[in-house]
Amino acid sequence: MRTAVVTDSTAYIPKDLREKYNIYMIPLSVIFGNESYQEEIEISAEQFYEEVKRRELPTTSQPPVGQFVELFENLAKEFDAVISIHLSSGISGTYQGAVAAGNMVDDIKVYPFDSEISCMVQGFYALEAAEMADRGKDPQDILARLNEMKQSSRAYFMVDDLSHLQRGGRLSSAQALIGSLLQVKPLLHFVDKVIVPFEKIRTRKRAMKRIVELLEEDVKSGAAYKAVIIHANREKEAKEWKAELEAQFPNIEFLISYFGPVIGTHLGEGAMGLGWVKK
């Protein structure tokens, strides 16, 4: 059985890796006024952060169901099944779009998978699925492994500017005002598919230190892990943090990724995160 792997653009898997592992990507969009841009195709993360400095904060949009249907029907010409891996259904309707489209196509079996997370941790699921598909594993085996990964996957992220969360409806105006006055850098994470506060920490440095402590707690068992540093237009800081983490955790494989346009709309420039999963 030939199985295709699909994910959406919020996994932020670099194009060369998507091509290497034959991962198909369906884009979400950001909308500035009347202009819509498909992230990773029509607007890059770098372009997005420049645009945001000059324009109103955009809105975001999930892929139309018809776009899923078209992709799945094209994949049916070469594949028997599709595993379609998407950002958490608690923050976007993208996963439900894949479910709806899967029920509308007849020539290929679609297995939608709710990662219950986003960004490159979601990308870890897609890469794992693609490697297994390449080895000829059937969809049930791949899904079993993805569900196993869920048990050890974690992601914590710090928001630098609370106004984005407030404008996007993720934080009340009062919370944003008080947080800004106190220079609070909230640590956030996913619980039951939605983003919730984990802890409120006073400074950026302390927030990042706390994330490292959480990683340390998980990896002290001695199991092999891979991790990813995720930044919102802070590449230099991400590289410096990676060097520090590699020195502290020589047995962990660290990557650098980014919060692209759609997720960056809600978190704002300067956000920094760390995600990890057991190998």
UniProtKB/TrEMBL annotation:
Q: Which residues form the signal peptide?
A: none
Keywords from UniProt, A to Z, are: Lipid-binding
| Source domain of life | Bacteria
A molecular function (GO) term: lipid binding
Show the PROSITE patterns listed in the entry.
DEGV
Quote the NCBIfam families the UniProt record gives. DegV
Task: Write down the PANTHER family for this protein, in alphabetical order.
Answer: DEGV DOMAIN-CONTAINING PROTEIN DR_1986-RELATED, FATTY ACID-BINDING PROTEIN TM_1468
This chain belongs to which protein, by name?
A: DegV family protein
